[in-house]
Amino acid sequence: MIEYGAGADVLDELHRWLLTEHGETVDPDRLRHVRAEVERVVAQGVPGAVVELGCFRGAMTLWIRSVLDALGDDRPVHVFDSFEGLPDTTEEDEIVMPLGAMSASQAEVLKTFEAWHRTPPVMHPGWFEDTLHDGLPGQIAFGYLDGDLYSSTVVSLAECVPRLAPGGALILDDYADPEANPRTVVKFPGVKTACDEYFGRPTPVEVLIGEGDLAYGRYVRPSS
Question: Which of 57, 68, 151, 172 has its CA at a distance of 20 to 30 angstroms from the CA of residue 31?
Answer without folding.
Answer: 151
